[in-house]
Amino acid sequence: MTDKHTGTCFCGAVEVEVTGAPEAMGYCPLPLLPLLVGWAGERLYLVEARERESLQGAEFVGKFMKTPVSDRKYCTKCGGHLMTDHPPLGLVDVYAATIPSVDFVPGVHVNYSETVLPMKDGLPKLKDFPGRLGGSGIAVPE
With a threshold of 0.85, does the pTM exceed it? Predict the structure, then answer.
């Protein structure tokens, strides 16, 4: 059975759909996140790039690519964050808040070596991404 979840940006102008089981769910506490989303962590729902699509409102999807690893997508009407494409990894991080029907069960912290929000929750803390997803897979201490 294929998981299918649909969600929207803040104003509802852009609708996205993800299908299939996530490659990973977890947290990303990068230092730039307070500038982007207003707090020091983001809930990740990583899916293969082919498992997501924009159903409506593609004309309102803006993007900002600060690095070749992260192509951020947002709604140009409301500024709502939608997802980040990771072209070298073949994955898309659809922000868990965008797809509220997902039962969010975190399993990992990624990019933890740069955290601005230390957490002691017993989950693995990785320097970047898991090895199977194109990262180093190196664990760092809580």
Answer: no
